[in-house]
Amino acid sequence: MMKISAVSEASVLVVFSDMVSPDTADMIAQSVAMIEQESDLFVIDMVPSYTSILITYDLTRIELRSFMSRLNLCLQKSNECGQLSSSSVVIELPVYYGKEVSLDAEEISRHTGLSFDEIVSIHSSQEYRVYAIGFAPGFAYLGNTDPRIHIPRKSTPRLSVPAGSLAIAEQQTAIYPKSSPGGWQVIGRTPINLIDFNRENLTVFEMGAKVIFKPISREEYIAMGGEISEALLEEGAHNV
Description:
Number of helices: 6
CATH architecture of the largest domain: Beta Barrel
CATH superfamily of the largest domain: Cyclophilin-like
CATH topology of the largest domain: Cyclophilin
Helix content: 25-40%
């Protein structure tokens, strides 16, 4: 059901589906890669999301009708390529699920009726897909979490969520790449810096990639550069 429509004189929206799914993520990632290869499209920027891509092009070098025609041909070519190359990309991230950093362990257990050990086992045994990247550089929306651990966002967001915090909300999970306000339920923390200024998109994540979380011990977490502040120890103590 792919549809291309103009949203301004210098931008178009390509909608691939009305459903969020791994197949849709594959189509979007493949299309982004194909569009990046087409120099005669004169693309300035692309913003991929769950089911669409917002594309801005250079209006001084190509007019709307020509752009949409060339873009359509490019996307048809992308569709004919079949399976997505980036779908084979697997990103494995170490996560410490310890009480000092799993700030919402008690709330998640109370909501789900599961022990926190069960929650960690369920969360870390799932393979996730990058459905969108946004909110902040490096913040990737990953799905889908197991229905057994679905939980709403916090009614009152935290003013500051520590960088590297792994959290869940509804059917999604994500890592806060830097300290920022946030309302997701914090389940653990990774010592890995997700911001990479050597990459074009500034993050280790890419659309359509698969993500796996590997539980690590407190000692491994600290050895890999992870930090546990006194503030986290105090808040974590109230949540166990």
